[in-house]
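Researcher: We're reviewing a set of sequences before deciding which ones to prioritize for further study. For each one, I'd like a predicted 3D structure that I can look through quickly. This is Carboxymuconolactone decarboxylase family protein. If possible, include the structure in token form so it fits the rest of the review sheet.
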Amino acid sequence: MDARLDYLASPTAGKIIKYVMSTGRALKESPLPSTTTELVALRVSQINGCAVCIDMHTKDAAHAGESAVRLNLVAAWREATVFTEAERAALELAEAGTRAAEVPGGVNDEVWERAAQHYDQEQLTALVVLISFMGMVNRLNIITRQPAGNYEPGQFH
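Model: Here's the predicted structure for Carboxymuconolactone decarboxylase family protein, in token form for your review sheet.
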């Protein structure tokens, strides 16, 4: 499968993508735990059906030492016993934020409060930006049918 657009060949995309990449780097440097970052990025990408991002975040997390069991259970995190309460709160916020249009009022106060019990303001800021950022990146990849499967851990870092 070939992509509809080659972001690397487009001067317009080149100008924009450098800011997208810098946002990704800033999120990696945020106070949000890196494990949480990868789990949330993976879950948002699963919900949105972005194969490129699922490929990337699964491989990066595994490369960083994440277990196959936890990676395989991200899609069913509610029934899985392998996630901490903080990770569960982040995954719940990720789902609510990603599916905000499906629920009147978007992310409810209970979901927010559960996340706020585990993360400080800077971490919550990073979590909200990460969820939003992943939605944007997922759409860039989905709309242009970017092929998945060839990502190497750390390739874009």
